Amino acid sequence: MSEEGTPGRNGDTARGKPEARARTWPGSDVAPQLPYVTIIIPVYNEEGLMETAIRSLREQLAESFEWPYELIIAENGSTDATVPIARKLSEKYPEVRTISLSEPNYGRALKRAILESRGTFVFCDEIDLCDITFYQGALEKLELGYDLVIGSKLLAGAEDTRPMFRHMASMVLNGLLRTLVGFKGTDTHGLKAFHRDHMLDVVADCRIDQDMFASELVIRAERSKVRISEIPLRVVEKRNPSVNLLRRIPHVLKSLARLTISIRFGG
Predict the structure, then answer these.
(1) What average pLDDT does the structure give for the chain?
(2) What is the pLDDT at residue 244?
(3) Cβ distance 198 to 146 under 8 Å?
(4) Would strands 159-160 and 234-235 be described as parallel, antiparallel, or unpaired?
(5) Are the CB atoms for 44 and 77 separated by under 8 Å?
(6) CB-based contacts of 202: which residues, under 8 Å, 6+ apart?
(7) Spacing of C-alpha 222 from chain mean position
(8) Residues sharing a CB contact under 8 Å with residue 130, sequence separation 6 or more, in sequence order
(9) What is the DSSP string of the chain?
(10) pLDDT tens per residue, range 151-205
(11) Which of 122, 48, 108, 51 is CA-nearest to residue 74?
């Protein structure tokens, strides 16, 4: 992948560091500015992990960063106590807010949260990762002028501690995406960070929901010639996946077919 100050994946040149904002911490005695960063975390049936993960993330952010942020919990169709826990967190912490969908749909929840975000930069994280190391590396890239930064599980230097069959599934999916729609990177389902204004049109153009929204977002970004960079990700999950991989395969294949048709014939 490209380095700072050199042409990006699509041959663009860096736009340079954006003008810095006044950085006022949400909840301080001074009226907060618009958030510099929006963090989005989709959740589905996460009653056992969510409160601990959000509290821990807030503590890490307070220790490591000075920029004002908002944290959007993008709940979608949970049937356990996730919704009341999310609402409690939103009421307690002014920088946390919750959106909720009536159906389990990761992609639709993520897209809605992105469109409703207010930060200059948007980070898309996962509740079982909450990786501020990625935030640090991604923000450096974004402030240098990149439009989209992907935390890749498959890039050289990455550390993927997931079970081998899940690692292999990621490799198979990437191979299919390269063959079917010309994907050029190493991962479409890693963590993501991007300049909101530069990516909103790409997000709005995405037509596939559920898990494949993440892949469509990256592939359409490649085709729109935004500046993309990848950084290696260390994946250490805090719990087993909330959705069984084998049960996801038929839907992923169906969504992959829809994505191929949309990209190849729908623009």
Answers:
(1) 87
(2) 63
(3) no
(4) parallel
(5) yes
(6) 217, 220, 221, 224, 226
(7) 16
(8) 41, 53, 56, 57, 60
(9) ---TTS--TTS-----PPPPPP---TTSSSPP-S-SEEEEEEESS-TTTHHHHHHHHHHHHHHH--S-EEEEEEEES--SSHHHHHHHHHHH-TTEEEEEESS--HHHHHHHHHHH--SSEEEE--TTT--HHHHHHHHHHHHTT-SEEEEESSSTT-EE-S-HHHHHHHHHHHHHHHHHH---SS-SSSEEEEEHHHHHHHHHH----GGGHHHHHHHHHHHTT--EEEEE-EE--SS--SS-HHHHHHHHHHHHHHHHHHHHHH-
(10) 999 999 999 888 888 889 899 999 999 999 999 999 998 899 999 999 999 999 9
(11) 108
Collapse the DSSP code of 152 into the 3-class scheme (helix H, G, I; strand E, B; otherwise coil) and give the result. Answer: strand
- Residue that has been written with the tokens 């014939």 in this structure: 265
Residue 119: the pLDDT is: 98
Task: Read off the pLDDT of residues 75-92 as tens digits, 9 standing for 90 and up.
Answer: 999 999 999 999 999 999
Token digits of residue 27: 């909840």
Residue 4's pLDDT band (boundaries 50, 70, 90)?
very low
Return the pLDDT at 74: 98
Show the tokens assigned to 231: 């950084």
Max CA-CA distance within the chain?
A: 54
pLDDT of residue 246: 72
141-165 as b/e: b if 16+ CB within 10 A: bbbbbbbbbbbbbbbeebebeeeee
Tokens linked to 111: 């897209």
Q: Distances from the Cα of 160 to the Cαs of 84, 151, 153, 156, in angstroms?
A: 33, 12, 6, 11
